[in-house]
Write the structure tokens for this entry.
Amino acid sequence: LRRCLISIDMHRIEESFRGIKKAIQAKDTMQNVTILSPSESLHSIKPLDACCMTKNLLAFYVDRVFKDHQELDPQLLRKISSIANSFLYMQKTLQQCHEQRLCHCRQEATNATRIIHDNYDQLEVRSAAIKSLGELDIFLAWIDKNHQGTSDA
Amino acid sequence: VPCISSGLPKPTNITFLSINMKNILQWNPPEGLHGAEITYTVQYFIYGQKKWLNKSECRNISRTYCDLSVETSDYEHQYYAKVKAIWGMNCSKWAETGRFYPFLETQIGPPEVALTTDEKSISIVLTAPEKWKKNPEESSISMQQIYSNLKYNVSIYNTKSNRMWSQCVTNHTLVLSWLEPDTVYCVLVESLVPGPPRLARPSEKQCVSTLKDQTSELKVK
């Protein structure tokens, strides 16, 4: 990810997530199921695949999770929308990087992405969206870790 | 003998206190039962796994904390814990924590601070705090290895001028120059990790005096 430098205001995203964490995670009653399960997917990704994995996960959240989630609480909705907009911005930035062939996707990243989508498909769609939103801290911590040096710009 | 889940009030304020990955579950006694001989039983859950697990050392205990550091040592996983109160044959419902994520929630303890002085400067050497370990024989893991973007906020206080300033540093050595000779300076250091805010625990305040100015001493003679 460092070769494909993207400037992200991680603090704003993390702050938005902190505003929804308790409420969203409390709605997720299936503690025995995880979508971004640390051991199988994200934490087996090598630095070389970080850019592609970030691109895939941003698409997962933008194209599936944010679309499938229906939020009635206006305050939560505002924070979720803020996160979604930040992810859209990151996607645009990564797209330019992809065009410069700096964001190559290897089989490892493709497999890890498929595991996440499979986990998502095994749940009822609203529950899957809530669970994925509640696991944003796993994704954000992973971005932070793979992106140090520019995320606190 | 299993207790009967009755109207006994639940323990309150159940949270993890986590410092350098030493993860202590703590709670307050149920309200309105002062003087009653209450005991507690703890269980924990690894998010994504199948079932709640017992913590045998925290079954029918009278203290209001339980060390779950071993059970939550994989800091990239997430956890839940719960406690119930027991009084005689009656027990409360479970009181449960939110989802606990050690990697994002542990407090980073202060570094070790070594100071050496000169006439107009103080050299500061910082050693990153160590991750909690099960037993002393285990090899140490520095919190720097877990958080490679670990930084330090160094606060310096001139006790003569009452002036205070601070600097944020990433490396482990720092030289404070252009100081006043023969003056006591006090130093406090906090560890910082960019990302979600964490409670910070500053180091013990250390005070040292810069040396007397040798040149002015010679003139006097």
About this structure: Chain B touches chain A at residues 45, 47-51, 76-78, 80, 98-99, 101, 103-104, 148-149, 194-196 (CB under 8 Å).
